[in-house]
Design a protein that fits this description.
Helices cover 52% and strands 10% of the residues. The chain is built from 16 helices and 7 strands. Helix 9 packs parallel to helix 16. The longest helix has 23 residues.
């Protein structure tokens, strides 16, 4: 076997503008993705696990950077081509990731009826489209994606939400259920002491195995929050200029500042049609009980203090400070 051979897409990738929208499950990423999908030349946002899985392989040193870069570049070109010919588009109307759910039905139904596929590449090149990739809690491990997408990456949005809301959400939806049996689970696992644990618990797997279900959720959110801050602090000034951190609860109350910043970063001028669409999307999001529901540190502590050990009681205090300090730090940063 020749280990010197690496995959490559040098000089053959299709020109495009990439937007990554990252964050914890339940943080509000889908809302942000849906809004950007209505920008001029933007495509329906895509939920494709291959990119975060390649980031995970890179983290575990199971793939070379050059080969992973080639696979990522092939993937986004394939995503775009499929969207332009109506292939592999999610037409399940109740899914947030479907154009039928997001007011883009006509655009993709029309493409389905277009019999001439050979001009799709020319259309892509001419329109310089925006491809929006919805990824899951990979920031902290995703500097790799910033490196491989390089100049094609125009904006990396990280959506954060009150960590105690996320802990409760994860506790009810994930750690209290059987992965792959009571809910669909596409997270890669690793084996520690003959037991399967999520890949991101590698550095604290022994604690994770000993924790009860609620403590597992606390530990997960706490450790991932630390990884987020660590990676953000290590980004170069050039990389930080591509970053936009959105705090979801604040966004719901006052969305214009963040939306204007997204528009500026993607060089999009809001027209009347977009403003009407935006108003409708935001109105629907405010009617969503999951978006409105939240729980702060005090309420969480009162509700769950009897279910967690002293170690985890201290951890939620530290988490509360960590999150609030990071929020304050981000607000002091001047973003372009």
């Amino acid at each position: 076997m020749n280990n010197k051979i690496s995959l490559s897409r040098k000089n053959i990738t299709i020109k495009k503008r990439l937007v990554l929208v990252d964050g914890f499950s339940g943080s509000g990423k889908s809302l942000i993705c849906s809004i950007i999908s209505h920008f001029k030349n933007a495509e329906q946002w895509q939920m494709d696990f291959k990119y975060e899985n390649l980031a995970i392989l890179n983290y575990f040193h199971k793939i070379s950077l050059k080969s992973a870069k080639a696979l990522c570049e092939t993937g986004v070109d394939e995503n775009l081509y499929n969207l332009f010919i109506g292939r592999n588009v999610n037409f399940r109307s109740t899914d947030a990731s479907s154009p039928l759910n997001n007011g883009l039905r006509t655009k993709y139904i029309k493409r389905l009826k277009d019999k001439d596929k050979k001009f799709a590449i020319n259309k892509i090149i001419k329109s310089n489209p925006i491809l929006i990739l919805h990824i899951h809690y990979i920031f902290g491990y995703s500097k790799f994606l910033m490196e491989v997408f390089s100049d094609s990456l125009k904006l990396y949005i990280l959506v954060l939400r009150n960590p105690f809301h996320l802990i409760e959400h994860w506790y009810k939806e994930y750690t209290s259920s059987l992965p792959g049996k009571k809910y669909p689970d596409f997270c890669p696992y690793i084996e520690i002491k003959k037991k399967l644990v999520p890949w991101y618990t590698k550095d604290y797997a022994n604690y994770y195995l000993k924790a009860n279900n609620l403590e597992k959720s606390i530990l997960t959110i706490f450790e991932l929050q630390k990884r987020i801050i660590k990676m953000f602090d290590k980004l170069s000034s050039k990389e930080k200029k591509k970053m936009q951190i959105i705090f979801f609860e604040e966004f719901l109350n006052s969305p214009n500042e963040e939306i204007n910043l997204i528009c500026k970063n993607l060089e999009f001028k809001k027209n009347k049609k977009f403003k009407n669409t935006l108003k409708k999307i935001l109105s629907l999001s405010k009617k969503n009980k999951n978006n409105l529901k939240t729980i702060n540190y005090e309420k969480f502590s009162n509700k769950y203090s009897k279910k967690i050990s002293p170690k985890y009681k201290k951890m939620i205090i530290d988490l509360n400070k960590l999150y609030n300090d990071f929020n304050f730090k981000v607000r002091k940063i001047t973003r372009i």
